[in-house]
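User: what does the whole thing look like in 3D?
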Amino acid sequence: MYKVINKIKLESIIDKNEHWDLEIKPKSNLFDLNLKEVWKYRDLMLLFVKRDFVSKYKQTVLGPFWHFIQPILTTLISFMLFNVVANIPTDGVNRVLFQMTGIIIWNYFASCLTNCSSVFVSNAGIFGKVYFPRLVMPLSIIISNIVQFGIQLLLLICTMILFVVLKGEHIYFGWAWFMIPIYIFMMALVGLGLGIIFSSMTTKYRDLAVLLAFGIQLLMFATAVNYPLSFIASKSPKLYNIIKLNPIALLVEGFRNAVLKGNVDFHSLIYPFFFSIISLFIGMIMFNKVDKTFMDTV
Amino acid sequence: MSNTVIKVENVAKQYRLGEIGTGSLSHDINRWWSRIRGKENPYLKIGETNDRTIKGDSDYVWALRDINFKVNKGEILGVIGRNGAGKSTLLKILSRTTLPTTGSIKIKGRVASLLEVGTGFHPDLSGRENIFLNGAILGMTRKEIKAKFDEIVDFAGVERYIDTPVKRYSSGMYVRLAFAVAAHLEPDILIVDEVLAVGDAEFQKKCLGKMKDVSDREGRTVLFVSHDMQAISTLTDTCIYLENGSIHSSGPTNDIINNYINNSRNKEIIYIATEKSDIPKITRVELLTTLPNNVHHNGEDLSIKIKVIVPFAIRSAWLAIQINDNKERNYIQVSISNTEMPLFDHAGDYEVIATLPKCKLFMGKYFINIYIAEPPGGQIFESLLQICPFEIVMFNNYREYPWREGECAYIENSAWKISKI
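Assistant: Here's the predicted 3D structure for the full assembly of 719 residues, as C-alpha cells:
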C-alpha cells in the first residue's frame, strides 16, 4: 500500500516538472488571441490570398480584366441613374469619379464583411479536418480584399489621368492621399469586427446569415455611396442625423472627400474609430469563444 | 523527463442529438442562467452512453467518456472499435478541431493530423500550387515544402501532371498527391484516420511502409485508426479498443484484436432468429460439420443449411455465402441466383443447403457471411455477418512435418510428375 502511494506521489512530482507543449482543455481564456501562433502560420495566410486570386478567374477568357470590368460597368450604371436621370449633385466634383470612388470603397467594405461573416460555415470542411489558428482565415480574407482594392484604386487613378488628359479637367492630387491607408485600415477593422461577430453567431443560428444577405443591400442605400451626405442634409436634416449614425457612411464620405477634394475632416473620424475598435473587440471575444467548438454545431 | 508524449486524462465529449433550432435556444438560455447563478451546466448531468442501436430518452449522449491513456515516444498506437464507438471523436479532439467537454490532454511536440487526404485542395489550382497550399494547411512552412517538393512529386508519381489543375486528375492520382504531401510532414506526432481506404493496393502498401518508417527510424509517434485489422496488426504494437465511447481494453495489438473480434461476433454455433419481418428473412443457419461443435475436417464435404421465410415472390433473387477468417479476409464466396435454378419465386418457407465438396480450407477459425438480395445494385433483403464460427482441423490430412498455423489459406489438389533426365 505504502509503495503504491509512493509511486503515485512520485508520478505526480514528475508530472509537475514536465514541460508540455500543448494542453487541450474544455475552456480557454477568452482574451487569449494567440497572435504568436497566427504569425507562425503567415505562410498559410499568404497562400490563401494567392489561392483566392489564382482560382477566381481560372478558365475565364478575360482573366484579371474582370477586376476592372465590374467597377467600370457599375460606375456607368450609377452615373446614368443617379446623376443623369435623378440629377443628384456631387458637391462640385466630377460625377463619374464621384461614383467610381464611392463604389470601389463600398465594394471593398461589403466584400470584407460578407466574406468574413461566412468564414465558419463556408470553411467547415477544412476546419473540421485540420487545426490551424482559425483567425488566419478572416485575416487572409481581409488581405485579399485589400489587394483587390489596390487594383481598383489603380483603375481610379487611371480614370483620373484620362479625364485630365482628354478633357483637361482640374483634378485634386496632393497630401490628402496619404489618408487613404487610414480609411482602408479602419474599414478593414469594421469589416473584420462585424464579420466575425456575424460568423460566430451564425454557426449555431443561421438566421443572421439571412439577415445579412439583404441587410448589406439596404445598408448600401444608407451609406452615402451614390450621393453626397450634403445632399441628404439639404433635403431632410432628420434623415441626415440618422445616416450619420452609420460609421460606414462617414468613412465613405470622408474617403471620397480626401481623394477627390483633398478635404480631411479628422472630426468625423472619431466616431468610426471607436466603433471599429469596439466591434473588433467584441468580435474577437466571440470568435475566441466559438472557434474551438463550432464544428459541433455548424 | 518521462517518455510520454501524449497524456489523455478523463476526457469526455458530449453531443446533442437531433436538430438545432428553437429547442437549442431555450437550452442555451437555461445553461447561461445556471452559469450566472454559479451552478454547473445542467445538461452535463444527463446524457447516455452512445449506443446508437437503442432508442434513448435524452437528447444528449456521451460520445466519449472517461478516456485515459498515455502514448510514448516512437510508439505506434492503433485505435479500433465499431462504427460510432468514438474513434473519430477522439481523433478530432486530439487534432484540436473540437474541444473535449471535460478532461484534458497534454501533448509534447508538434502534432499533424491526417483525418482526410487532400484537405483544402482546390480543384482549379495545379498540382504544384496545391502541394504548397495543402502543406501549409498541415502546418509546414513554405521553406520546408520547397525543400521537399521534388521528393513529394516523386513519391506521388505525378510529375507529368504537376502543372495541370487537380480537377483533371484521376481519383487515384489525386489521392496519391494528397498523401504524398502528408507523408512528408515532419511532425513529432502524426494522427491518421482511415485515409488509406482509398488508392490502389500498391500505393496503400507504400503508405503503410512510409508510416512504419516514420516511427521506426525517426522516432515519431503515430496514432492510427482503422477498420482494417490487417493494417492495424502489421503496423501497430499496442492498441486501444473503444466501445460505446469508453475504452474496452488496451494492450498488445494481437490480444486487443482478439478481444475486438470475440466481442463483435456471434458466438452461437447455430444462428437462430425469431423476430418477424415482412421482407425475406433467414431464420436459421446451421453447419453440417464432421465433428460436433462446428469442427470440421479438412477435405470433407461441408454443408450449410439455411432456413428462409419468404413473404412474397422475388422476381430475381440472389443468395451468396462468404467464408472469412477472423481478420475479415474473405476466402470463399459461393452464390446461387434465379438464373441458375428457381430461387424464392413463390412466397413460403424454404430450406437451402449449400455444399462445398471436399472443403479445402486450411486449419484455422472461420466465420460465415450470408446475403439475400436482388442482383447487385438492387435491394438487399438480409445480410448476416460473422455468424456460425467454425474451425477446420487437419487430423486426417497427415504430413511428415506437422502443419503450422497460418501456413497457407487453402490446400489445393495437386498432381506431380517427376522423372530423372
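In plain terms: Chain B has two domains: 4-9+64-264, 268-420. Chain B has a mean pLDDT of 82.
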